[in-house]
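Go through this chain.

——
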Amino acid sequence: MTQRIVIVGGGAGGLPLASALGKRLGRRKKAEITLVDSCASHIWKPRFHEVATGAIDADLDAVDYRAHARRNHYHFELGRMQGLDREKQQVILAPHVGADGEEVLPERRLDYDYVVIAIGSRGNDFNTPGVRDHCMFLDSRQQADRFHERFLALCLRANHLAEQMSIAIVGGGATGVELAAEIHHAVALLKLYGHEQLDRSRLKVDVIEAGPSLLPALKPELAATVKKELEKMGVTVHLDTRVKSADDKGFVTADEQRIDADILVWAAGIKAPEMLADLGLSHNRINQINVAPTLLSDDPSVFVIGDCCACEMGENKFIPPRAQSAQQMAKHTAKNLCRLIDGKPLLDFRYRDHGSLVSLSNYTAVGSLMGNLRSGSVFVEGWLARMMYISLYRMHQVALYGWLRTGMLLLAGRFNRLWRPRLKLH
């Protein structure tokens, strides 16, 4: 009997997993692979800050799930998981509603023998008053597109009135830091495209971090280098600053100071979607599902990978919610599902930390490599780090398309630069 494998979530873990299983099992009819996602196309989440500023055109860089499914021997189902009937082994999909609010697809149920939950994480506002009402998030393509719209409108107004524009970002992690740098780069480019009165001297960007340093995942000396680079651009960095509330004008800090801005962004902390806490599976306080070393949950037919799983890798140490974690988990889960179908025992997952890289737009990049080596990590910055940062995305493309198609995409991108603007202007 053909096994039915349903993968929920087409992000940094789910899409490579569907690709791998489609090639290994779907092509040979050993399993029926179905990928579920609430969007019709995929953008690599670590690039959302570039979509938000227009540094990349998401329409050109997006992977169309249906086209990709056809080439890689799996099925795609558009929908959002709203529950799991574990007794009947069915994924329950919510009705799909169009842009005009009309129901396009009714509630559906997908049968499975094995399900892999890979729906990622969302921004965690920690129930801070006013944040949900007044702040923008960068958890999805739609949110990145909304930021882009507001950002271009703000630049247009600032140029017309020859006035200052301001953006405040809460969260000194990779998203907040990279967004701050991309905003500066985008404003510099807009001056070349008709915004003569607009330049970086009229731009005010604040990055607000509750901890003692930026990028807590990096070593202190690396975090200090990033802070220095941001300040060179003109970004104001607020450390040890906890936000108490947000309103339509800006943020109020715990010591009653105000940091006002035209656009407010929340990029602090993560949590898994609330729906996961209702599945009857063991989970932690931020809704991540607890998994065994094999990446199986309490239910032997439910795997969980990526940001939405809590996988212990040592005493009170958990695998960090990064794209590299999700990609490694996807590769391991593909291997384990093939072993299950062949009647072999499951293998435990071992996370290998390849280091961290943070891009400061075209200006530079900073990070550490080979963090899994006993001798420690290697510090890199500047042009070399920037090239290595770009290569991370290229390796993601290789996992989806293979080397030949990735090379062709790279070549097409080079040609696009000859006649397309360096920034998405609409």
